[in-house]
Amino acid sequence: MNQYKNHTCAICGKTYYACSSCENIRSFQPWRTITDTRACYKIFLILNGCNKGYIHNADAQKQLKNCDLSQLHTFVPHIREAIQKIFEKEETDYDKKDSRLF
Ligand SMILES: [Zn+2]
Predict the structure, then answer these.
(1) Which residues, 6+ apart, have CB-to-CB distance to 14 below 8 Å?
(2) Which residues have beta carbons under 5 A from ligand 1 (an ion)?
(3) CB 35: neighbour CB atoms within 10 A?
(4) How many CB atoms sit inside 10 A of residue 66's CB?
(5) pLDDT grade, residue 4 (50/70/90)?
(6) What mean pLDDT is reported for the chain?
(7) How far, in Å, from the CA of 99 to the mean position of ligand 1?
(8) Rounded Cα–Cα distance for residues 32 and 38 (Å)
(9) How far apart are CA 25 and CA 49, in angstroms?
(10) Which site in 17, 31, 67, 102 is 20 to 30 Å from 41, CA atoms measured?
(11) Which residue has the higher pLDDT, 11 or 31?
(12) Rounded to an integer, what distance in angstroms lies between the CA atom of residue 65 and that of residue 27?
């Protein structure tokens, strides 16, 4: 076994192995170069979208509730803070209007 752990998950901070040469192959699942699991990648996409303004804070909250956050305390500190910030943020008037649909 020479599969050393050469990547660190951008979300949970765990180290894992992913083939470096695979990073250049398009057909290879690109999330493997960013996070160790699909669950972590889902969180990554939500935070990224929220950061760039693609995802509304209220939507990010809803989406994060569907993610496994049971290991939140072990996540990378700035990721943990970003998630906590999303949950702390008050809904804006726009969000409130929007959430009546649900
Ligand atoms: Zn992870």
Answers:
(1) 8, 36, 74
(2) 9, 11-12, 35-36, 40
(3) 23
(4) 9
(5) confident
(6) 84
(7) 30
(8) 8
(9) 25
(10) 102
(11) 11
(12) 30
Residue with tokens 């809904």: 91
Q: What is the CA radius of gyration of the chain?
A: 16
Mean pLDDT value across residues 59-71: 95
Calculate the CA 20 to chain-centre distance. Answer: 22
Query: What residue ranges do the domains of the chain occupy?
Result: 7-96
> What's the one-letter identity of residue 87?
F
DSSP 39-94: HHHHHHHHHHHHHHTSS-HHHHHHHHHTS--TTGGGS-HHHHHHHHHHHHSPPPHH
For 96, the token pair is 């409130």
